[in-house]
Design goal:
The chain is of the alpha/beta class. 34% of the residues lie in helices and 16% in strands.
């Protein structure tokens, strides 16, 4: 029996690693399908996702029947064996994976904040993207729908719900999460709480970095202002207020954890920090912050609504947010996450050691 994990980020890779060790999965039976994330170390068999391999017009023409080509891709990876799939959300290729003839079971693994949001509207249950429409209102949308069907993706696959909690009624589906608050709406007996301490620490690259970090302030750069279209002046005002609080506490040097695939030279946050005489050290992009929170000592973690703030707290560090200092925020799900704010403190409530 093979075990296939689909990963695309540090947290999905971290979740996969914990599941592998906690469930004592034989590494030779593990296949990690990696969609664009550079993994920090090898565990099991790591392969590029189908969509990464299918770049180029000729490859798309050759494999026009997408479903047939994808099934062959999975068959070659598993040598025709049956497998269990571990996915975070039901994206397009995850739908093809779990409907593969040799898939005997599928489970969900924690993905970050998305694993904690209550699916209280049709968009989130079905796809989660604001641009999704439930009607083909013009010829372009109709053509896209027809094109998908022509490539072998039938209506039954397309109609599979996007959100994990839509699959609560399937008895054999498990939900792997780091907290009881993960996958809200799922019965507690269906959740498996992940224990990061199950991981063998010797497998980590840069292992010294994780244990040497202590008594540091870490600022998490996140996508909230961009995704929720926060006005730049409101975002900057909140950052400046946070900087003033740091200086008041005598802190003039911080570590910054950039978003995956981001560069310091393009960071709006780093630019403001340096302009205000804060010494900045950028954490290596190969570092998984969740594991750092397990290994390091006495960290203060800053951010807005990043899942990393929550993980820092439940893994033994202190975290706080300047979410309340951002004015004129659009509607968002984070204000309703009572459990999150029980773990993450507000800027003015924190006393730095």
């Amino acid at each position: 029996m093979k075990h296939i994990f689909t990963i695309h980020s540090p947290i999905t890779f971290f979740s996969a690693c914990v599941v592998i060790f906690q469930e004592n999965l034989a590494h030779e039976d593990v296949i990690i399908i990696n969609d664009g994330y550079k993994v920090p170390f090898k565990i099991g068999t790591i392969v590029d996702s189908y969509q990464q391999q299918e770049k180029g017009i000729w490859r798309k023409i050759k494999n026009f029947n997408l479903v047939k080509a994808y099934d062959q891709y999975i068959k070659e990876l598993t040598h025709g064996q049956q497998f269990i799939a571990y996915i975070d959300l039901m994206h397009a290729y995850q739908r093809l994976l779990i409907t593969h003839p040799n898939c005997v079971k599928f489970n969900f693994i924690e993905e970050g904040t998305a694993s904690y949001v209550v699916p209280d509207n049709l968009l989130f249950i079905t796809n989660g993207a604001n641009q999704v429409t439930f009607r083909n209102k013009n010829n372009k949308q109709l053509a896209i729908s027809l094109f998908r069907v022509m490539r072998g993706v039938n209506i039954r696959v397309l109609s599979l719900p996007f959100n994990p909690q839509s699959y609560a009624g399937i008895n054999e589906v498990k939900f792997y999460t780091f907290s009881e608050h993960g996958f809200p709406g799922i019965e507690r007996e269906k959740k498996i709480i992940l224990n990061p301490h199950e991981i063998d620490p010797t497998i980590w690259s840069n292992s010294d970095y994780y244990t040497q970090i202590k008594d540091e302030v870490i600022w998490i750069e996140e996508s909230f202002p961009r995704v929720y279209k926060v006005a730049e002046e409101n975002y900057e005002t909140a950052i400046l207020k946070t900087i003033a609080h740091l200086k008041q506490k005598g802190i003039t040097k911080i570590l910054v954890k950039l978003r995956p695939k981001s560069k310091a030279s393009n960071s709006y946050l780093i630019d403001i920090l340096k302009k205000n005489n804060i010494k900045v050290e950028v954490m290596p992009d190969t570092i998984i912050a969740e594991w750092l929170f397990i290994q390091a000592k006495n960290l203060q973690v800053i951010g807005i609504v990043s899942s990393l703030l929550f993980y820092a707290s439940i893994f033994g560090q202190q975290s706080w947010s300047f979410f309340e200092d951002i004015k004129e925020k659009p509607n968002n799900p984070f204000e309703k996450m009572k459990f999150y704010w029980e773990e993450v403190n507000h800027l003015l409530d924190v006393n730095f050691n």
